[in-house]
Protein 1
Amino acid sequence: MTDAQALVKTLDFQLDIQSDNESLLYDATLEARSVYNETIQLAKEGVDWNVIPDRVADDANLVKNTTQRVVAKALGAMENYYEYDDFGQPSHTKDGAYPLRANYEEGYNLSLTNDGDVAFRVSAKPYKHVTGVLEGSDVHLDILKTALESDEWKIGTAEALFHNDNAELHVNVTNTEQTVRNKQDSQTVIGVDVNEDNVALTALSEDGVEDTLVIDFPEIKFERHRYFTMRKRVQNAGKDSIQDTLEGREERFVRDRLHKVSHHIVEWSQQFETPCIVFEDLKEMRDSIDYGTRMNRRLHHLPFRALQYYTSYKASFEDIPTAWINPEYTSQRCPMCGHTERANRHKKRFKCKGCRHQDHSDRGASVNIAVKGVKKLNWNVPALNSLPQVRKVRRQASGAVDAPTVTHPTARGYQADGRMGVSD
Ligand SMILES: [Zn+2]
């Protein structure tokens, strides 16, 4: 077993569908939606998640393994994000198309044509296929053609979906040869503490804490609360379609911002010697016992795993590995003396009852995460005699309050006390 992480990429294509098969594919995405809805419904009724795939597959007019992929995605969505809405409300079911997720060589297939195109065949319904050729950027087509002809890339699941009324296929491929550097070969550990309105980073080497940064993003919290109120209002008025629109807008807004934040985390990490980014494994926490109100609130308030996933994905393309640690006590432990008690923390202030050390509490947590990461990599934990000043970076206000622009983020991105600008 190697510890190295494989490089995964999603390739996006437009579908040039042969003949009049487009409606067949659209019908299948509607069927995928009802599979999604039924899955959410059963899960809410408390049905064991292990038996849901078979129960749903019995009624669904889709290829069986495709149904299973869609069920798995719906359960993943519940687990990750919208199920844990601000007030603990389960996500509601919806209308409209849902991506048809399919296994390669089961639910869909690809092949090279004599003309040098890539032909696709998606099993929209049992024994009914949608066929045609893929269109897309040269880079993505190149990788896919390489994947079809060599063992360097492995083709995985794909999603057929409609975007602005155009049929698309998003194909996951894994590079089997190019892997991310082994995390054991790291000389710096970046502890990442993700919160509702910020993310705190600490870079720890064998010499001690190299630097620390807190990226504030109050607008994500603000917008999520605002959208929640709006959705509640239209829900009470029985306007489901508006609610769906709002939810889509909120999702795009949050996703866009989280991509920016994850980009920033990776960029910051790159300044250090062979970094390894370390996250808290929140799933582990949820499965275990009482995880305390702070953790509870965090799970309910931000799509943490989305941010962790985006960061880990972007980092892998910069050859930066990621590691995961158990989040127990990361917010209650004093990074200087190790004294651990819940009373150490008062919102954003940390005040150790043992040694009187004071700190920005999220930064303190990121130090603890880095320390756990160092232990995981089997280094000696360096003595922490002093911690650097906390440096804060804040996203600029996002402009008009009643019309959040999700597709055109502010050009300047971050502003860091006038010293750091990220243009992406
Ligand atoms: Zn202390």
Protein 2
Amino acid sequence: MSDITVRPLGEDDWEDYRSVRLAALRESPEAFVATVEEEESYDEDFWRERMQRSARLVAERDGVAVGVVSVGTAKASDGSAGELFGLWVRPEARGSGVATHLVKDGASLAAERGHSHLVYWVGTENGRAVAFASGMGFRPTDYRRPMGVVSEEDGEEEIAMLLPLGVDTGPQLRL
Ligand SMILES: CC(C)(COP(=O)(O)OP(=O)(O)OC[C@H]1O[C@@H](n2cnc3c(N)ncnc32)[C@H](O)[C@@H]1OP(=O)(O)O)[C@@H](O)C(=O)NCCC(=O)NCCS
């Protein structure tokens, strides 16, 4: 099997990001709060602005996008925690190390940006994603929030999982 490369996307790569993001929403609607119908309607300005808001990493094999992840700053923290989100791997590429490459590169990027921890919100019923994150060293926390895919009343929850990134400076986490 050929090598996987992970490429950080710049603003001008917005169409590459749009393409893999829409594929993720189309294939795994239960895993994401956003919908493909909603995001298909966004214009170029929106996607360009989105590229600047967080880092977007795409995994490629033979020049074909096989996975994606985003890395930003955790909204409700004091800035010391980075946030990993929007993780997706094409079904035919799962179990082959693509997600590991994406998360390792995402964690390195967050560490380079000075974050001490990486937060990852994941659906408590998304067994594969929780198992994957645990295998990467993310620890479960007591933080939960409604998933909000169908409605706030559907009872589905996300759990915040936390990965220390090297030197622990004791973040004031307020999620
Ligand atoms: C989550 C995702 C990125 C993980 O990538 P992956 O290539 O499937 O991950 P891996 O196969 O390397 O690892 C999954 C782990 O869960 C285990 N696993 C596989 N299927 C599982 C299942 N149905 N339930 C629980 N665990 C499962 C694997 O054995 C592996 O554990 P191991 O490393 O101890 O062997 C991928 O499954 C995906 O894109 N899912 C759809 C989108 C999604 O849910 N994204 C997360 C949104 S928060």
Protein 3
Amino acid sequence: MPERNPVFLVIGAGAGIGGHAAIRFAAGGYHAVLARRSDEASLGRLIDRIEEEGGSASGTLLNAAEDGSIEELVERIERDVGPIEAALYNLGAQIGNRKLYDTPHKTFELGWRLGCYGVYRLAHAVFPAMVERGKGCLLVTSATSAMRGNAGQHSHAAAMGGRRMLCQTLNAEFGPQGIHVAHFVIDGAVDAPDTLGKLLGDKFDAFKAAKGEEGVIDPAQIAETYWHVAQQPRNCWTHELDIRPWTDVAWWNDNPNPEIDGRGKSFAGPK
Ligand SMILES: NC(=O)c1ccc[n+]([C@@H]2O[C@H](COP(=O)([O-])OP(=O)(O)OC[C@H]3O[C@@H](n4cnc5c(N)ncnc54)[C@H](OP(=O)(O)O)[C@@H]3O)[C@@H](O)[C@H]2O)c1
């Protein structure tokens, strides 16, 4: 049987972090499998780009919130495409800022399904084969909300905080079995037209301009960081890191002092 390329699976492959991670891992020799909920044309454009650059990729539409969706995809890839050596869970809770009484039970549950339960389901599906092979990597894109609650974040922060604890717990059990889990706190706005871009609509360009030069995170650079972490030797694994633009205030610093830190004004934007 011919040797099959190792697979990099992305759950949530839009034009931002997910798509750029697929491009980077494909450039590094993986076959990238891209999954997103809608927009077959955009999915096709990403796959075309990877192939034009000499890489290998395929894709599918899937709603990760539905039970069985991630599990069936993983089974299909392991059977028909190749061994999943690295996977990226790239979905946030995505329900926006809402007051408690604007957060019905179903909405709270959806945030948890996308923000926390989906990570559990992906780990549950990919880890058995990884353990058997003695190696594998699960990357989880996270957000400031994984580190602190805030007004309007009842479902979002609860789900994202839960995923952070889940990543630590997965590491405790599966690290010694050769599986590397890394949780990335994206602590700032990303140049991501399919998520932040759609949220801000025609204000997206003005928002980026207001953030200033290099004030919005370049998803290609996040992908470069993911690639580095996924290639780390086992004696030097990163389990968590945070990323923000140089102009931004860190999640742990809600008392910035622009006069002292030299920015002259606060650049803090929505996170
Ligand atoms: N963008 C930011 O400013 C920002 C800031 C901090 C943290 N983050 C984190 O970054 C991650 C997202 O990365 P990104 O913003 O750069 O986005 P992206 O990779 O450009 O796109 C993410 C993709 O996820 C897909 N998706 C949404 N719901 C889905 C579902 N139920 N099933 C399958 N796919 C689904 C969307 O597909 P469709 O378009 O087809 O629905 C979207 O294109 C999240 O973990 C988020 O918490 C982002």
Protein 4
Amino acid sequence: MSQLPPCPKCNSEFTYEDGVQLVCPECAHEWTEAEQAEAEAEKVIRDANGNELQDGDTITVIKDLKVKGSSAVVKVGTKVKNIRLVDGDHDIDCKIDGIGPMKLKSEFVKKA
Ligand SMILES: [Zn+2]
């Protein structure tokens, strides 16, 4: 018997296959294994050292970063508190003291 993954919504272990879909009998959630793998892959955002980042983390900038549309620069070593992970090329949303709301790339930061 193949082991099916638990329901990503309610964690029920009573999931069953219906064609290509997986179905949860407890919360009626339907999904495919491909969708689930994609969702899980997207969740992990790593810093320059390969450490996993999470919402609310404090990070340090490891490279001078120009702020788009201004002459300001976020200097190496700038600490940024309470980051929020987002989708996209710039995957960190945050607010930097003295500069304001900004988006950063996870490859240019490390977890503090
Ligand atoms: Zn469920």
